[in-house]
Amino acid sequence: MIPGARAGGFAKSAILCALLLALTQVSAPASDMTSTLLIGGSKIDVTIESGEMKVSQAELIQWVKSAAEAVATYYGRYPVSHVRVQIIPVDGSGIRHGQTFGYEGGLIKIRVGAQTPAAELANDWMLTHEMVHLSFPSMADEHHWIEEGIAVYVEPIARIQAKQMNAEQMWADLVRDMPKGQPQTDDKGLDHTHTWGRTYWGGALFCFVADVEIRKQTHNKKGLQDALRGILAAGGDITHDWELSESLRIGDRSTGTTVLSDLYAKWKDRAVEVDLASMWKDLGIASQRKSVHMAEDAPLAAIRRGITEPTASKESSSQTILPSAVFTGRAVAGSRRAL
Ligand SMILES: [Zn+2]
What is the pLDDT at residue 274? Predict the structure, then answer.
C-alpha cells in the first residue's frame, strides 16, 4: 500500500478481456497437468485442465514462457513473484476470454480451443495482455480504462522488445485501431464513458499520447516504459489497490515530467479528440493498405523507434530475466468436470 491507497477490494474483481463468448468445456477430463516456470525470481504455476487438444502440453508451456518473457523484458522483471495460469480447453479453435485476478498473488484464466493450431499460439497476443495486467495496481471501476489501455498498448511493444513481433506490424495495427479510442458523441471523458472503445482503445490512446509526450519532453531519453517500471518498482502490482492519481504521480516521478498527471487532468472528464493524422505524419508512419511505410526523416522518427527499440540498458536488464525456464510437470488428480 502507498499513502493515499484505498483499502478497498478492487483487486478481487476480475479483469475481463476481449470478447466474452459462451463457451462449453471440452469433455473427458482425466486429470489436470501442472507445471512450474521460473523466470528471474518469479514462479509461474501453469495448470492445463484435462481435455483433448491439438497442441501438446509442451507447446502450451512454451506459449506461457514466451508471454512471460515478453512482459519481463518490458518491465525488466516479471511483475509478480508468483502467479497461477489456468489453461482451460474449450470447444473450437482460438484463444479466448482471458481473465486476470489480483488475489492470492495473481491468477490468470485463459481458454484455448481444442482445435487451436500451434502457429496460433506463437502469434497470440492475449496471454501477454493478461500478464501485463499483473504489472499495474488495481483501480476503482471508473478507472478501468487505464488498466485495459496499458495492457493494449504495452502488449505489442513487449513482444517486439522480446523479438516475438516486428514494429511495422504494430504500427499498422495501431493506425487501424487507435481511432476506436477517440471520443464519440456525448463522451464525458475517460472516467465517465465506459464503452468498449473508450475503455480499451481510449486507454491505449492515453498511453500512446503520453509516451510520445514524455519522449518529446525528455529528448527521447524516457518514455511510458520508465513510468510503468517506476510504478511497479514502488510496489504497484495487481495485488494492491491504488488511487489512479497517486499511481500517475509515481509514474511521472520516474520520468521527471508531469505528463501522465497533466494528461489525466485533461482527459478524465472531457472529450479530447487526438489529431492522429498529425501524429502518424510526425512519427513517419504512412499507411499502405494493410502495412505501413516508415519515413526515417520524419520529425519524430527517433521517438517512433524509441518506443519499440530496447535501449542498451533495457537489453542488459533483460539478460538477467531470460533463460531460466524450468519444466517440472506433474499430474494433479481430480478436478473432474462434466460436459
Ligand atoms: Zn485486459
Answer: 98
pLDDT in tens, 143-198: 999 999 999 999 999 999 999 999 999 999 999 999 999 999 999 999 999 999 99
190 backbone φψ class: left, alpha, beta (φ>0; ψ -120 to 50): alpha
**The predicted structure's pLDDT at residue 297:** 97
130 Cα to the center of ligand 1, angstroms: 6
Question: Could you tell me if 160 and 170 are in contact, meaning their C-beta atoms sit under 8 angstroms apart?
Answer: yes
Give residue 108's identity as a one-letter amino acid code.
Answer: I
Please provide the average confidence, as pLDDT, over all residues in the chain: 86
Q: How far is the CA of 182 from the centre of ligand 1 (A)?
A: 19
Q: How many CB atoms lie within 10 A of CB 233?
A: 13
C-alpha of residue 30 to centroid of ligand 1, in Å: 31
- CA-to-CA distance for 25 and 169, rounded, in angstroms? 34
| Beta carbons of 132 and 154 less than 8 angstroms apart | yes
What is the CB neighbour count within 10 angstroms for residue 32? 21
CA of 15 relative to ligand 1 center, distance in Å: 6
Q: How far is the CA of 147 from the centre of ligand 1 (A)?
A: 7
Owner of C-alpha cell 464519440: 184
pTM (two decimals): 0.86
pLDDT at 305 over 80: yes
Count of helices and strands (H, E) across the chain:
13, 9
- Give the residue-averaged pLDDT of 312-327: 44
d(CA 189, CA 185) in angstroms, rounded, equals 11
pLDDT at 120 over 70: yes
Q: What share of the chain is helix, strand, coil (3-state, %, to 5)?
A: 45, 15, 40
Instruction: Transcribe 41-77 into DSSP letters.
Output: TEEEEEEE-SS--SS-HHHHHHHHHHHHHHHHHHHSS
Round to whole Å and give the CA distance between 127 and 110.
Answer: 8
